[in-house]
Structure formats: structure tokens, C-alpha cells
Design a protein that fits this description.
Elements lengths: L1 E6 L3 H12 L4 E7 L5 H8 L3 E4 L8 H11 L4 E6 L4 H9 L4 E4 L4 H12 L4 E2 L1 H10 L6 H9 L6 H8 L3 H15 L4 H10 L4
Parallel strand pairs: 1-2, 1-3, 3-4, 4-5, 5-6
Length: 201
């Protein structure tokens, strides 16, 4: 049996995935979580063979949890399943050690096959997304620029952002300016939007 941990924040989607995958003769759902902070503790407790993770979760993102999971449980394969097929997300998932990346609009049989394939040591990536990621190139933003943009998401002031990321307001302005230039946008909110659309945040 393939022991599977399922992380999805939408209860109906999580229930449907658990039900459909549970019908497969060789897959057993050993844990279901709706919050990114629960992924690693539940995985350490239930010892899954494969963790099927959404990206955008309350608490930690699936990408952050994937990196931690690979470090703490190297035998557990990570498969990202997301609504958002963004090239930057794919690149970040691979950097975090994920073995696969699929978007949610595929058939459940394909998902079950992907779970078996990553457990067998294969890489499984949505082909259209792989092509888009190659043409999009790497994330141009530094970690600090990403931190500052992430803190600016809710329209926070420079002073608010500075307090949140523990930098001076002048340094925050410099990072925001660099991020706006790199995303070829006119202001920080457009830069946030562009960075999100590309999966850089």
C-alpha cells in the first residue's frame, strides 16, 4: 500500500480527493490536513510514502513545507497539486525537492498514476507547465526583494513593511524600487501582482 498524506485547504476538494484516491486499491490516505503548519508534524506522526501538497495554504505554503519535509523525511516523495500552474511555482517546487508538479484540472486516474510514479523515483511534471517554465526563465527577484514584496501585499506602508521585515525604511524603498524595475511595473502593487502571477512570491 502507498501511504499518502493529503494537504488541501478547501474541505470539499480535500474530501473529494481523499474519496477518489481512497478507491484505488494500492493507496491509503493516512493523513488529511488543511493548514500548511500541520504538514510536517502529521507526516512525522503518520510516516507517509508520498505527500500530496497544495501550494496556497493557511500558515506555511506547500512549497515551504515541501522543503522541510524533504529535509526531515527524505524517504517521503512530494507531489505538488495546485490550481495555479505558474512557471515560478514549478521552479520553486523543484528547488524545494518536489518529485512532481500537477495542476488540478487533470483526471483522477492521472493523479493516481503520478503518485505511483513519484514513489518509483520518477519526476512527474505537467508538460505544458514545464515548457512555460523553461521559456519564462529564472526568478529575477532576490530573497530580500521577495520578502519586501510579500510584506507589501495588503497595501502596507513603507514603515509597516520595514517593521515587519526588520529593515530601515530607506532599505525597504531600495528593495521595492529594485523589484518594480525587475518586474517592469509602475508601482509596488503592480509588482506584487506581477510577482504573484509568475509564481515568484
Amino acid at each position: 500500500m502507498i501511504r499518502l498524506l493529503l494537504a488541501e485547504d478547501q474541505g470539499m476538494m480535500r474530501g473529494a480527493l481523499a474519496l477518489l484516491l481512497g478507491l484505488e486499491e494500492d493507496i491509503e490516505i493516512v493523513a488529511q490536513v488543511g493548514d500548511g503548519d500541520e504538514i510536517v508534524p502529521r507526516a512525522l506522526e503518520t510516516k507517509p510514502d508520498v505527500a500530496l501538497l497544495d501550494i496556497e495554504l493557511p500558515g506555511r505554503s506547500g512549497l515551504d513545507a515541501a522543503a522541510d519535509l524533504r529535509a526531515r523525511m527524505p524517504g517521503c516523495q512530494v507531489l505538488i497539486l495546485t490550481t495555479f500552474g505558474r512557471p515560478g511555482y514549478l521552479r520553486r517546487a523543484m528547488e524545494a525537492g518536489a518529485s512532481g508538479f500537477l495542476v488540478k484540472d487533470g483526471p483522477v486516474e492521472e493523479l493516481a498514476a503520478a503518485i505511483r510514479r513519484v514513489l518509483a523515483g520518477e519526476r512527474v511534471i505537467d508538460p505544458a507547465l514545464a515548457a512555460a517554465a523553461l521559456s519564462a526563465g529564472p526568478n529575477p527577484l532576490t530573497q530580500r526583494e521577495r520578502d519586501v514584496l510579500a510584506a507589501a501585499v495588503d497595501g502596507a506602508t513603507v514603515a509597516d513593511i520595514a517593521a515587519k521585515v526588520h529593515l530601515s525604511p530607506a532599505t525597504v524603498r531600495n528593495y521595492l524600487s529594485a523589484a518594480i524595475g525587475k518586474t517592469r511595473t509602475r508601482n509596488r502593487m503592480e509588482a506584487v501582482r506581477a510577482a504573484r502571477q509568475n509564481g515568484w512570491l
